[in-house]
Amino acid sequence: MKEVILSADGDSVVYLVPDAVAKDLRKYCITFCDKWMKTSPHGKKFKIGGGYCYNEADFIAYLNEFVFPEELSVLVKNLGWTDLGRNLPPEYQNHPYFNF
Predict the structure, then answer these.
(1) Pairing verdict, β 47-48 and 51-52
(2) Where are the alpha helices (DSSP H) in the chain?
(3) 68: pLDDT strictly greater than 90
(4) Which of 31, 54, 66, 82 has a CB 3.0–4.6 Å from the CB of 58, allowing a cystine?
């Protein structure tokens, strides 16, 4: 398990996720919001009007329920507003980061 930082145009939040997710964070995030969200019947609850509404916690729930139920991802720390990752504390600057 490794730490990553996720946000949805708000606070940057550190999560502990399976190694595979940390290694290829962008791929997993894009799969969630561009493929799973639009093709899975479970993604329908996120559809609002002509678009979708979700955040980083929804991505973590997706990982835990559908992708890695044996390796649960957990919230570690909310870093607050970091200007979409531009102003991360020094100890987090090399963490994988994704903004939804």
Answers:
(1) antiparallel
(2) 19-23, 25-30, 37-39, 56-62
(3) yes
(4) 54
